[in-house]
Amino acid sequence: xxxxxxxxxxxxxxxxxxxxxxxxxxxxxxxxxxxxxxxxxxxxxxxxxxxxxxxxxxxxxxxxxxxxxxxxxxxxxxxxxxxxxxxxxxxxxxxxxxxxxxxxxxxxxxxxxxxxxxxxxxxxxxxxxxxxxxxxxxxxxxxxxxxxxxxxxxxxxxxxxxxxxxxxxxxxxx
Length: 174
Fold this sequence. Notes:
The protein is built from 8 helices and 7 strands. By secondary structure, it is of the alpha/beta class. The chain has a single domain (2-112, 148-166), classed as Rossmann fold. It has helices at 2-7, 23-39, 51-59, 79-90, 99-102, 114-129, 151-157, 163-168; strands spanning 13-19, 42-48, 68-70, 94-96, 108-112, 145-150, 171-173. Helix 3 packs parallel to helix 4 (79-90).
């Protein structure tokens, strides 16, 4: 959210659409609320239970009601895809936590590098295959994160991406 606020200085209200039947999505919302509170942002929460509700909730968001969509990695109910499509139609900035969506038109993303996560998982599986007990292997957190920016989308939205963000970006789509 901090990076989103840097990208869109006028950011005050963000929409978070989430699958209310998904425990991980509900737990993630607690973190989103805390981050928003710290940054002085208001969250317009849109809990949904199925794809039809997700479509209706997302399509009901108008540019006048929000400054951006903040979407998590949890892809249930096609929330990211629906968000990306609607945000483009309404010219609403989007922040995802997966670079995949930036390649498809989202403004930006910040996330753990999924390739590195796969390598990390493979290394842990290798230890198990060599006889290590899973309970004896310490839990590991991601160590490499990536910032992706879509300059084409930024230009279409009239957003000037600060050089400080461009210098930090791992992937810039032009």
